[in-house]
Amino acid sequence: MADWVGRSTELLEPLANEIGRIVRRGDALFADDTPVKMQAPGNKKTKTARVWTYVRDKRPWSGSSPPCAWYQFTIDRKGEHPVSHLAGYNDQPHLSGPI
User: Least enclosed by CB within 10 Å: which of 50, 53, 54, 83?
Assistant: First the structure.
């Protein structure tokens, strides 16, 4: 079963990467990190890992694009993770002017 999951992950990786690109192309995105327990190897204890969620949803502002969510997993909450996940986001065209 673990082999199936591993092979499925490999096959789905291009789809996950494209979802990440779609989310980062939006004018605005919402982000959150959720703590999850992860079994720490070798010491029979759990450690707190993170699932980072990035969401593009313009429906509340009458946007026509469908909502999209992208998830990333990290073993800690270091700031380098969202920096890496969102690399290139500011390079995209965005709305300018007063809010």
Answer: 83
Q: In this structure, what token pair is assigned to residue 43?
A: 């010491």
Query: How confident is the model over 52-82, as pLDDT tens digits?
Result: 999 999 888 888 888 999 999 999 999 999 9
Give the closest residue to 68 by CA, choosing from 98, 24, 33, 32: 24
Give the span between the Cα atoms of 76 and 59, in whole angstroms. 32
Task: Please state, as a whole number, how many other Cβ atoms lie within 10 Å of the Cβ of residue 71.
Answer: 14
